[in-house]
Specification:
single chain; 445 residues; alpha/beta; TIM Barrel; 11-stranded mixed beta sheet; two-stranded antiparallel sheet; 15 helices; 19 strands
Length: 445
């Protein structure tokens, strides 16, 4: 399996942790269960030079740290890197200001330098932000990138986000064709983003011929792997892989030796733009409420930020899709398409730090939670293995009944979530109020 997270940011992007540097990223990727991590921000000259000095090529377009810094007591395989970045295109088209983010996968450092030179020749500033802002249409950027190297892969990022999403309510498009024109033929995959999941995207007819992938868009090491795309080889051949193998799997190219096995999803309700609303006034509306009450804040009269669920329902042209839910032997709920049998399934998880935070009744960054996280990942394996595969008795022995029960409930989808809206993350509640009250009362005896 190739467990990938290819959309991340470096310390050179705005609002990103200074810990987002290769050795720390690799350590956390190992903890998370990731074995192929995007470098992020290849367009930033200082970051690109730093990557080149710290990484060595182990296969075509695949890199590892020259000096592997082991996690104390850990038993994680070396983490591979693939050169990636995200580019922000802001421009006018059809009488509207358009804003769209694109994830770009690059086959080599040589190609990365060529792209950066092309962008600088166009007068773009690559130094001010790891995710550069270009006054360039998405269509023209794809043409430029493909002109540099046909192997480059371009994936529209978090396509439903109100700002910077392909279908975003504030500055997006009605279709791939409207956005990319004749370059749409080179868009083989789209990224769900944290506020949508594959099932929501399965309903969009023009995406029937595109792969649906998910990555974390992490701005700190702890957020790596909150969404991932897992690839598997179609046969029992050599498990080594190259840039071409990854790109072809994400494209679902005929003859590819690898394919998408499944994606790991954030609960979309937890995403910052799942429902419509106005954060300042505390207004949060479901699509049904928005349809009934309108798109204006009832408190202040300003326009609501329309959520992803609302936008999906406006876009869907076909009958509502039915999904198939299957519970495997480990109690994990897998979701599959009822119509498109070729669509990879997905699983929806709550990050382990959040599970521990609620189980231990401590803040997600508290020392108690961090210590328990380290204890579990050192002794039971990666976060992904713990959340998906470790037996309840193993988890209970290491961390206690409450943590084991929380993971079991999360695996089966037995949780409650207050949906996110207008830039505010949703709130996960694994244990209901009654369970918490019972625990509080037990503590009195």
């Amino acid at each position: 399996m190739i467990i990938t997270d290819l959309h991340i940011h470096s310390q050179y992007s705005r609002a990103v942790s200074p810990q987002m540097e290769p050795p720390i990223m690799a350590q956390w990727a190992g903890r998370k269960g990731i074995n192929l991590l995007g470098s992020g921000d290849f367009t930033h000259p200082l970051w690109l030079r730093g990557l080149e000095s710290q990484l060595r090529e182990v296969n075509e377009g695949i890199y590892q740290l020259k000096t592997v810094e082991q996690i104390a007591g850990g038993h994680f395989a070396p983490v591979n890197f693939l050169i990636t970045g995200e580019i922000s295109c802001i421009y006018s088209q059809g009488g509207k200001i358009r804003k769209i983010h694109l994830v770009v996968l690059i086959p080599s450092f040589k190609v990365a330098y060529k792209i950066n030179q092309e962008l600088e020749d166009h007068g773009f500033n690559l130094v001010s932000d790891g995710r550069p802002i270009l006054g360039f249409s998405a269509r023209d950027l794809v043409e430029l990138l493909k002109g540099v190297d046909k192997r480059i892969a371009v994936i529209p990022a978090h396509i439903w986000t109100p700002w910077f999403g392909l279908y975003g309510s504030r500055s997006g498009f009605d279709s791939l064709a409207e956005c990319f024109g004749d370059m749409g033929q080179y868009i083989h995959a789209i990224e769900t983003g944290l506020s949508s999941d594959p099932a929501m995207n399965w309903q969009i007819r023009e995406l029937d011929s595109r792969q649906i992938v998910s990555f974390s868009d992490a701005h700190s090491p702890q957020k790596l792997g909150r969404e991932m795309t897992v690839l598997k080889r179609k046969d029992n051949g050599d498990k080594s892989f190259s840039f071409a193998d990854v790109a072809e799997a994400l494209e679902d190219k005929s003859g590819s030796q690898w394919k998408i096995a499944y994606t790991v999803e954030f609960y979309p309700q937890e995403g910052k733009y799942h429902y419509s609303g106005h954060r300042r006034c505390g207004v949060c509306q479901s699509p049904e409420e928005t349809q009934k009450l309108g798109t204006t804040c009832p408190v202040c009269g300003k326009p609501l930020t329309l959520g992803v669920m609302h936008q999906v329902q406006l876009t869907v042209k076909s009958p509502k899709l039915k999904v198939i839910e299957e519970i495997d032997g480990d109690g994990v709920r897998w979701i599959k398409s009822s119509l498109a049998k070729n669509r990879p399934p997905y699983v929806t998880l709550v990050p382990l730090l959040e599970v521990l935070s609620e189980s231990l009744n401590c803040g997600v960054s508290s020392q108690k939670v961090v210590n328990e996280y380290n204890n579990l990942t050192v002794n039971l394996g990666s976060e992904l293995e713990i959340l998906l595969r470790r037996k309840g008795k193993e988890i209970e022995k290491m961390a206690g009944w409450r943590v084991s029960e929380a993971i079991a409930k999360m695996r089966g989808g037995d949780i409650n979530i207050e949906p996110g809206f207008d830039g505010q993350f949703g709130r996960v509640q694994i244990f209901g109020r009654q369970e918490k009250q019972e625990r509080k009362q037990m503590g009195l005896f």
